[in-house]
Input
Amino acid sequence: MTRILIADDHAVVRAGLRQFLEADPAIGEIGEAASGNEVLEKLRLGTWQLLLLDINMPDRSGLDILRQVRSTHPETRVLILSGFPERQYAVNVLRAGASGFLSKESAPDELLKAVKIVLSGRRYVSGALAEQLASDLDGDAQQPLHSKLSEREFQILCKLAAGRAVSEIAGELFISVKTVSTYRTRVLEKMNFKTNADLTAYALHNELIQ
Output
């Protein structure tokens, strides 16, 4: 039987997702986690086939959790759930190793559809995102500036925009301060910005942070 772990810091959201998932008899166990550290602890103690992960967690960013899960628990597939705009985040989380991206505004049947697709070993993208990706390939869409960034650069962008110090980021990601500074320089150059304040303004305008 399938074991699914729901990671969201809001109890009401977890309860709602649990109710939808319990409608599927193929799902044997549903667990819950309210923080990034709790997610990692539950994964350490047992095997979960699927992690439903909110990208906006209180102690660690969803991108940080995603990277660690993909590194230490590759057997666990990750479906990102988010209130952030699909256009701004979906491609980056897929690039980071997520098996799909689902808006929290999606209908229950869309959630169950996404879960089944991801558990079958495929990636889930909504119809709207598929259309966006096709337009991007055709060169018809205006690409956001952060689409130029690598997975790691995007991760650094979100942390800098949220006001994290370079030393703090280095500690969270287990890399040197010099490496973080190098990534910061690359991000500023690629996006044609000069300061962290520019990054914060951009991230707020594009709803990359709250």
Observations:
- Residues 177-191 form the longest helix (15 residues).
- The two ends are 37 Å apart (CA to CA).
- The chain has a mean pLDDT of 88.
